[in-house]
Amino acid sequence: MPEDRDWEAYKVPPTRTPVSERITSVPNPVTFLQTVFNYVVDAPVTFVREWIERQQAKNKFYYYHQKFRRVPDLSECLEGDYLCFFEAEAQWRRDRMVDQEIVEIVRERLGACKQREGPNQFQNCAKEMEQLVQVTKAYQDRYGDLGVHGNARTCLMKQKHRMMEERKAQANASQ
């Protein structure tokens, strides 16, 4: 390429199209409304939100690591102490959900063992099978026959009746 170009012959197009600015004595109402909105609505909301986020960052709360304190059992509540009754009921529901999850985890372990072992599942998964039998028996002893509307009081009565039957059977066996 030749070094001496004729710049007049090959003009470079402009990089941007020039914008003609209108100059009037009346201000643009859109920019005025945007400025008013920014200072009246957006700035305070943004300030409050950032302040709340800073406060939450200081006090992180992990709901999935929530630890509930153990409350007295329903049998330990005084007569007419309805707050104690409510707390015992909530504790019983949490215990029931935990026990359901334990049964489900043991069941999943047995299923995984059966899947892994294939035809040898009966001899190689005997430990998991025995554990599932123990866990389901314990769950059935505690929560069985309560139904969907079972609560801490009916569970306690069931436990009391079972203990009374065991004592009667023990007394009859010793005679």
From TrEMBL:
Keywords: Electron transport, Membrane, Mitochondrion, Mitochondrion inner membrane, Respiratory chain, Transport. Signal peptide: none annotated. It is a peripheral membrane protein. It is found in: Mitochondrion inner membrane. InterPro entries: NADH_UbQ_OxRdtase_su10 (IPR019377), NDUFB10 (IPR039993). It comes from the Eukaryota. One of its GO terms (cellular component) is respiratory chain complex I. Accessory subunit that is involved in the functional assembly of the mitochondrial respiratory chain complex I. Complex I has an NADH dehydrogenase activity with ubiquinone as an immediate electron acceptor and mediates the transfer of electrons from NADH to the respiratory chain. PANTHER family: NADH DEHYDROGENASE [UBIQUINONE] 1 BETA SUBCOMPLEX SUBUNIT 10 (PTHR13094:SF1), NADH-UBIQUINONE OXIDOREDUCTASE PDSW SUBUNIT (PTHR13094). Belongs to the complex I NDUFB10 subunit family. This is NADH dehydrogenase [ubiquinone] 1 beta subcomplex subunit 10. It comes from Eudyptes sclateri.
